[in-house]
Amino acid sequence: MNLDHVISLRFADTEHDYGVRDTLLYALSLGMASDPLDGDELPYAYEGLPGRALQVVPTQAVVLGWQPFWHDDPAAAIDWKRIVHGEQHLRLHAPLPAAARVRTQH
Length: 106
Description:
By secondary structure, this protein is of the alpha+beta class. The protein has one domain: Thiol Ester Dehydrase, Chain A (Roll). It has helices at 3-8, 20-29, 42-45, 60-64, and strands at 14-18, 100-104.
């Protein structure tokens, strides 16, 4: 891997729209509410709970900010057989809304 190249990569700010359906599918893909009686997970996977708003799994922000295909750049020289996702940082200043337009910066 060309570490200097990968570290120097910069991406343009991008905007993403997501809706309630996307929020629900993300939560379900993580296994939220696999036990339908688990009251802690149900607010992430069901929008019809009386008196409770749909909640967003905080890591959904990582998926919204993903820049596709940068790792296929030949200059990055990434060998997928030897790569491990070792670290990631996420700072949330408030809970994500169930549907919104967001801007990502890298």
